[in-house]
Amino acid sequence: MMKKIYLFLPFFAAQLMFAQNSQQYYSGIFLDKDKKPKAFIKVFNKNTGVYEETDEEGFAIIQAQKYDTLVWNNGKNIQVVYGVQELKYILENRIPKKSVSAIRSKDYDSLIVKPRSDEYSISKPDYYLSKNSDFYFNKIRKLKQKNGDTLKIKKQEQNKLIINGSFNTSFDVRNRNAIPQTQNRYVQGRSQSGNLIWRGPETNEIFSYGPDISTLAYNFQPYDYDINGQLIPFSLGMISAKPYDNSLFTTTVGFHNQLQINAFIKSEDYNEKVRFSMDFGQHKNQTYFISQYDINNTFKAKVNANVLKFKVQALFDFDETKATNTNRIALFNRAYQESLLTPISFSNNQGSFLANGQQRTYSQLGDNPEFLFAQNNQYNFLSNQKKYSFNLSRKWDDFNFSVNQTYENDQFRNTDVYKPSTNGFPSGLKNDRLQNNSLYNANVSANYSFGDYDFRNIFNLNFIVNERKSDVFHSSQNRKYLYQRSSQDYIFNYDLKFDDGDFEFGANLGNSFYVSNTSLNNKLWLPKVNGYVQFNNIFDWRRTRLKFFGAYTHQSSEPDITSSFSSYSTTQFLAQNASQYFPAREVESFKNLSTVDIAETKAGFNFSIYSRFNFGAEYFSRKITNDIFPVFENNSLLLKNLADHTYSGVELNASYENFMIAKDFTMTHLASFYKYRDVVDNVVSGYNNLALSGFQDVYKTLSEGQVLGAVVGNYYETNAAGQTIIDDFGFPVASNSKKIIADPTPDFVMKFTHTFNYKMFTLDVNWEWKKGGQLWNGTQAVLDYYGRSKTSGDDRNLKNYIFPGVHANGMPNQTSVDFYDPNQSVFENRWTRYGFTGVAESYVQNADYVRINSVALGAKFDVGNFRRSLGVSLFVNNIMLWQANSGEDPSQNFYDLDSGRGLDFFNLPSYKSFGCMVSFQF
């Protein structure tokens, strides 16, 4: 078949040459993102769909008309065509023109020319060269006498120094998104002898089941816990007490500044010889807690140069961060929890300390958020990261060789402090966590290519070395954990590409080796196979493309030794004892584990018309074998290979680009659909139903045959017919056992992007819709238990309610109940009788949401004589959120952990922000 195709090549070439005589073309050198000529990049004509590939010097000729738009580097570079020529003129101009000169020699000259003295010979002492000898003398860099009267002259290159850069500055105003609704009527207290009474902080009361605040007044007598005195029953002539606002949240402002400077030297032929760039940045990220923020300083310096036909790059990257606190010990979640639980009859803002130096709080079983945030150091978190890189590459015709080396040194210090009288830590606790990382990476790459544009072959070989060391020290344990890993990857790839215009196909074959000193087994067979076929101008429709692709990839990996698994210690506590959470234990070792093997298969297609309308679909299945999870055994935190699971799904993408509505008015629409499921296939014996994250009583589980991370908790007892069983007191019976109660996996996620362009203005809108998935709302459960939720406030006076269900004997329930009976103990009401977290199943909620992620309006202006660009952008993020659950944003994770999606236990609310960004290029 290939021979037949080659036989027709001269015929096709002749047709092509004749057809191109009447066409117009554009020619030029195309640069990459670093503004360097780039070989073998595809340049697309967006108006016609035609594309060409640049040669070794970055030069390409492409069919075009005036005002066509050319794009390359995946759309990052755009150019409008203003001048076109016929192909023959372009080709003629590429050929250097020289005059034919007569052949001369010294013997011939000696016969026909009378010898004469050379008055300018350097052998004559009477004459000399100086800078005034000739107008172009300054262009001579070096003179050297070779032999006799022959001189070797080296030209002085005329280089240009060019300096440019950009400055970006922005600020954003932040505020919180949705939080749970709380009741604003009932004070700290409980029922006693049939009456509702207020019980002050000195009683260590934790419940807000006291009387209505409007029935109380302050006595304005000296009282350690309130400047207004104690609460007493309201009577005529007194001022009714008002609820205190204990919200932690406020509107805050952060800023970001970035300065980039580039200096580069270009030769007369516009080739870049040396480039030096520097990047300075300073950012202040302000949380919605006024006292909590971080400051980040960055500096980057990079040098690119061409030395003896080698391309050399050196990079230095410095990143420093200082923060008042981090959320490593869930400090922010804890402060947020206490702000919601604080009764309306107590003000946290009146002070953090009592006269005796103890914490001033509504109860010793609770905390004052202001007390938790009070600290001696300005910054309890410091990080310092330095990265050095050196890259060397060279190209010999079809052979490329490069060596890339990177060394990184990171230092982190977390100072986590709970002062004496903190709930859970009456004597206080301080821990300095120090982590030092030393990371080295080297990548040696070589590739050889041969063949023509329509049939090309590339062989590639990569050798990767990783040397990683990390040590972690906890001062409270006086213990240092030491980790080290040396690993090598050997990767071989073969790429094949055929393109005859209307038909293309390509294939990639390869295999990898993975060798590591921490793994029980080295992997010598990690194959991969990728391929595609593409049909162009199908059904004789110009600029249409239909592409089918498929791939199989086998990979092996190990957990990153710089990652901490200490947060897994939450699984050692009941939710009611979460105040005792203080992660100070690290994984014992990363050794003696099998690699995690991943075998991924995917297939799909993509269809496009005129490069404007695109539609694609992809199915993927990722089989993960010997996956690693943390466990606690013998009071030690260990990592073990425990399970196999399969992550599979489908992704659909559609776009319509640059649709013209009117003159200078275009729009682009992008949409994606994503659906997946991660099912546990097999669990090692003895570890089925292991807790992955959460607490002892409600957690995400590793259960065979179930989705990875399904939520487990207790539930209401039911009979064989599914009817709820009611006890003798008229309340549903809670089971003492647990089962899977929620699946966090969404049915699907859809994302949309809309871009509108009008002259110099651009409007971008991004939003998404997540359908399905569930979460356990532990925040609501605890607020109900304490009597702080709006539900417990609205319904506590509900009487004679009959729960639907049957008694143990099968008879329908007819026993009525009061949700809160003052004649009974406070622990027997509707919300306290089931304990701190209630019945977990009853707090499972849908996690659907629709969110406008961002809206940005930008404009670019030309200022000054040199058309320097000024850009201004106004943006809002997370401006609109509709959610099916009550409380915080369902996309927020338990204690900010990636493994905590599906658990809501005082998860921090998300931000909504408004801001402006100004950029100036010079």
Kindly describe this structure.
The chain has 922 residues and is mostly beta strands. It folds into two domains: 2-94, Immunoglobulin-like, CATH 2.60.40; 252-921, TonB-dependent receptor, beta-barrel domain (Maltoporin, Chain A). 7% of the residues lie in helices and 48% in strands. The two termini are 56 Å apart.
Instruction: Average the pLDDT over all residues and give the rounded result.
Output: 88
Number of helices: 8
Percent of residues in β-strands? over 45%
- Report the end-to-end length measured between terminal Cα atoms: 56 Å
Summarize the structure.
By secondary structure, the chain is mainly beta.
Break the fold down into its secondary structure elements and pairings.
Layout: H1 2-7, H2 9-20, E1 25-29, E2 42-45, E3 51-53, E4 59-63, E5 69-72, E6 77-80, H3 87-94, H4 106-112, E7 140-147, E8 150-155, E9 160-176, E10 189-192, E11 195-198, E12 216-218, E13 231-233, E14 252-266, E15 272-286, E16 293-307, E17 310-323, H5 331-341, H6 369-373, E18 381-396, E19 399-418, E20 429-452, E21 455-474, E22 479-499, E23 503-516, E24 523-536, E25 544-557, E26 596-609, E27 613-633, E28 636-662, E29 665-683, E30 690-694, E31 699-702, E32 710-713, E33 739-742, E34 748-758, E35 761-771, E36 774-777, H7 778-786, H8 790-795, E37 844-846, E38 849-863, E39 868-883, E40 903-904, E41 911-921
Parallel strand pairs: 36-40
Antiparallel strand pairs: 1-4, 2-3, 2-5, 5-6, 7-8, 9-14, 9-41, 10-11, 12-13, 14-15, 15-16, 16-17, 17-18, 18-19, 19-20, 20-21, 21-22, 22-23, 23-24, 24-25, 25-26, 26-27, 27-28, 28-29, 29-34, 30-31, 31-32, 32-33, 34-35, 35-38, 36-37, 38-39, 39-41
